[in-house]
Amino acid sequence: MNTRWIIMLVIIGFIAMFIIQNTVVVKIQFLFWAIEMSRALLIFMLLAIGVIIGWLLHELMIHKKSMARQK
């Protein structure tokens, strides 16, 4: 078997164990807004938001550097 496939299967196994162990429903409140969702889904959503914000900030910095070089 290819090493890449083995690594992917191990990661998928860890993700499955994480989801199974974090099925507790938690309540999130912000000001007048409240929502209930599983803890695993909340963690994955926050991770995705963090990745998107990081990517956008990185792109903004690259854009600023390229604009400064053009001057």
Write the layout of secondary structure elements.
Layout: H1 3-21, E1 25-30, E2 33-38, H2 39-70
Antiparallel strand pairs: 1-2
Helix content: over 70%
Unreliable parts: none
The ordered string of helix (H) and strand (E) elements is HEEH
Physical arrangement of strands within the biggest beta sheet: 1-2
Distance between the termini: 53 Å
| Tally of helical segments | 2
Tell the overall outline: flat
What structural class is derived from the secondary structure elements?
alpha+beta
Rg calculated over all Cα atoms: 19 Å
**In percent, how much strand structure appears in the residues?**
15-25%
Mean pLDDT: 88
The overall strand count is: 2
Main pleated-sheet profile = 2 strands, antiparallel
Describe this structure in words.
It is a single chain. The protein has 71 residues and is α+β, with helices and mostly antiparallel strands. It has helices at 3-21, 39-70; strands spanning 25-30, 33-38. The protein has a two-stranded antiparallel ribbon with strand order 1-2. The chain is flat.
